[in-house]
Amino acid sequence: MPSAAENHFPPVATWRINAMRFLFLLMAGFMGAMYVWPQLLFDWAEWDMNRGLAKSMLAALALMSLWGVRYPMQMLPLMLYEVAWKTIWLILIAGRAWMADKWTPDIEGLFYDCIGIIIAYFIVPWRYVWARYIKQPMEPLQTRK
Q1: Are 80 and 124 in contact (CB under 8 A)?
Q2: Is the pLDDT of residue 54 over 90?
Q3: Where are the domains positioned within the chain?
Q4: Which range has the worst mean pLDDT, 48-62, 96-110, 117-131?
């Protein structure tokens, strides 16, 4: 078991924590309340299974983002998930479509929905992420008796 000194993580500035709260609020508000939830409640009838699945996952992400407003550091993995999937989509889907000259209105629309994630790169406390999720020793696979 690591000692208390080994579990010391870099401090995170209050402005950064509050900025993360604001990002979580944006995720919950814009993505959830203004976009995904109304679609799930009123426009679902013509969707195929994959679109319904994607919208349901985004709705859950938006709902869980409300916890991030209250507990931004504990919900940091949710923010990292949002950063990861949008970055992957921007590079591997939108980027390749643009380079192959296969840009469509659907890709353009989702591009504008995802590009704002760049703001998170400046707000996420990367030193804390490194210390907490990469450098910290793994939790034991089983308890010691």
Answers
A1: yes
A2: no
A3: 14-135
A4: 48-62
Answer whether 27's CB lies under 8 Å from 19's CB: no
Sign of the CA dihedral 92, 96, 97, 98?
Answer: positive
Query: pLDDT tens across 107-136, in order?
Result: 998 898 889 899 999 999 999 999 999 999
CA-CA distance, 42 to 50, in Å (whole number)? 17
Length of the chain counted residue by residue: 145
DSSP string, the chain: ---TTTT------HHHHHHHHHHHHHIIIIIIIIIIHHHHHHS-TT--HHHHHHHHHHHHHHHHHHHHHH-TTTTHHHHHHHHHHHHHIIIIIIIHHHHTT---HHHHHHHHHHGGGHHHHHHS-HHHHIIIIIISPPPPSS---
- The tokens for 20 are 């993360």
Burial class (CB in 10 A: 0-12, 13-18, 19+), 53: exposed
pLDDT score for 50: 86
